[in-house]
């Protein structure tokens, strides 16, 4: 069943980013060849479907969000076996395989910088900060595939309001876990580790921005960013970072991992925009996992209610 996955996905599009980065960053073909060999082998020895869920705790999800799409949800199988989580390797199958070694308890999230009430949260306290919602969101990867995921979490604004940003806070930076003993991907200089991302404060405060602890009513599978990640549905998937350990409020725009790796390809904003092509491919269409025909990509991934955040900005310049 898993082995069929690559068949219905345009591999040229999917692999183009990681292959390109491998070529660019690695000195010679040796490392790239290694990655290809690994990808070829991965399908055979993936953990059994659902194994990461065997011990997964059910979450107490009490709110059904009006922000949810009614589009068909992507299968749990696809959501958990076709991932980008470069700390565990650049191919889509490595995260499901290797992320199981990551320890997600105990886990702390340090919230610091331009806030009146800096605080280090234990993950189990963070989980209880606000009622957990179900948010069924479209998720569009910059590589040209998309999924629909029933995430579980609460608005990022609930956390931000707790720590009370100062008047200097204009941006928020997210830093994710870096563990050399469990993350084989970080030995490759594909990105500047740890993975970092950032949002403007008003973007982070937008009611659509989610602090996410689970999906399909259970704790996040490790390959999807356990124990806590962001979900910013109007932006390309890489803006939603997995396995967060630090949140820093800042006056200046933070450096972000993808922007540092390839600034002409990945800007700070990275709003889904079918009218602005990636330098190496079109962003006009996408393939929904599990579907055969391509569909048109929508401005802001269909989340038009964020448009006012960008009034007066040239979205070709601020890509
Ligand atoms: N820490 C971390 N977060 C990350 C990534 C990553 O490599 N490392 N990849 C991003 C990309 S490119 C995408 S498309 C989404 C994928 O999320 P999913 O695997 O849960 O669908 O995670 C994003 N968050
Ligand atoms: Mo992505």
TL;DR?
With 319 residues, this protein is α+β, with helices and mostly antiparallel strands. It has a single domain, classed as Oxidoreductase, molybdopterin-binding domain (Sulfite Oxidase, Chain A, domain 2, Alpha-Beta Complex), CATH 3.90.420.10. Helices cover 19% and strands 22% of the residues.
Overview features:
binds molybdenum atom, 8 helices, 319 residues, Sulfite Oxidase, Chain A, domain 2, alpha+beta, single chain, binds the ligand Nc1nc2c(c(=O)[nH]1)N[C@H]1C(S)=C(S)[C@@H](COP(=O)(O)O)O[C@H]1N2, 19% helix, eight-stranded mixed sheet, globular, five-stranded mixed sheet
Q: Ligands bound here?
A: the ligand Nc1nc2c(c(=O)[nH]1)N[C@H]1C(S)=C(S)[C@@H](COP(=O)(O)O)O[C@H]1N2, molybdenum atom
Count of folded domains = 1
Mean pLDDT: 88
Rg calculated over all Cα atoms? 18 Å
Biggest pleated sheet: 8 strands, mixed
Q: Are there runs of 5+ residues with pLDDT below 50, and where?
A: 1-14, 26-53
At CATH's second level, what is the architecture? Alpha-Beta Complex
**CATH superfamily assignment?**
Oxidoreductase, molybdopterin-binding domain
SS strand fraction: 15-25%
